[in-house]
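**Entry details**
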Amino acid sequence: MAEAHPLLKAGLGVVMIAAAEGPAAAQRLEPLLEPTVLEPRVEMIGAPAREQSGPAPAVHLASYRGADDAAIGWQILLDRHPVLSHHEPVTAVVDLGAKGVFVRLLAGPLPDEGAASALCRALSREGAYCVPATTAGDLHPSTGSAS
């Protein structure tokens, strides 16, 4: 019987495959399948592909004075609310006249207004601010005007 390989003796969990002897040793190993190159693909979970001609449904999560602050805000919200990990951040600049110019942080685009309402309900249960909106930053008509 052959002596165990030194790595096996050391307990490193290495699995060895014994080489064939005789005529089998001369066989050339061929790949079982042709190599396949996989292209990266991004898709939103639960969001069907659709044609969009205008602003899509989204949810308004917060407002900031600048895009950098909105990016930081997204990371903070992701840490606090894992449900957002299935969505993309969207920002929209809105001019509210006397109140000033704000960057609205949104999650979207979402498949429809029902999905926006469902996401807001989930976030509200976790204590987060959330208002259905569009990717253009327009708030749902029933929500009134906020920053």
